[in-house]
Amino acid sequence: MNLEQRKAWNANHKQLTNIITKPAQHHQAVQLFLKQHALLYSSKMTGSELQSLEDELLTDIKEETFRTYPVRMTDTSNSIIWHIWHSARIEDMTMNILVNDSDQVLMTEDWQHKMKVPFHHSGNDMLAEEVALLSAAMDIEALLLYRIAVGRRTREIIQSLQPGQLKQKVESARLQKLIEQGAVNEKSQWLVDYWGGKTIAGLVLMPATRHHFIHLNRSIRIKHKVQ
């Protein structure tokens, strides 16, 4: 994505924000979400011919660039692996548990074992040695496939929502389920409070879209600095 495409993505996100809770514009909001979301994932997810932000990151990237940790950036020291794993984990737990009250993608098809990492939480507030372990141990191919699985599941969930549902608040029982499953580590309980104050629309606008945009752009800057 070039600068103009990034500007267009931001403009469309503002439009989505304006219409997402209006039942009369539900179909339009869902279609706009699908367009925005596709631009944040590998084009393999949808079979699109358009280059996505993740495609830009992955083009000609070296394995050592993926794994480099710590990185010397003003806004992060974490590896690219951490950024794309973390953003996928956040989407997985919010869309599947909080929005759909279903199992996380991580819990299906043995994804945690395939990725070869011991962590199943969101990745927030990790110790330096934990990020180092994650960055060194991660099976990158499995991580990229996990991201695609998460993205596809989210698209199914959003398309299943009915007009008016996007205005609903997150149910407290689903927040408790997050805690019970260890999706949020002990130091990151603030996330539960944060998400508890959101509507379904709020989760769509951040964990499923804007959050990826932030972390992918950050990862691309790391790539340009390291490689």
TrEMBL record:
The DinB-like domain, residue ranges: 56-173
Identification of the protein by name: DinB superfamily protein
InterPro entries noted in UniProt: DinB-like, DinB/YfiT-like
One Pfam family per UniProt: DinB_2
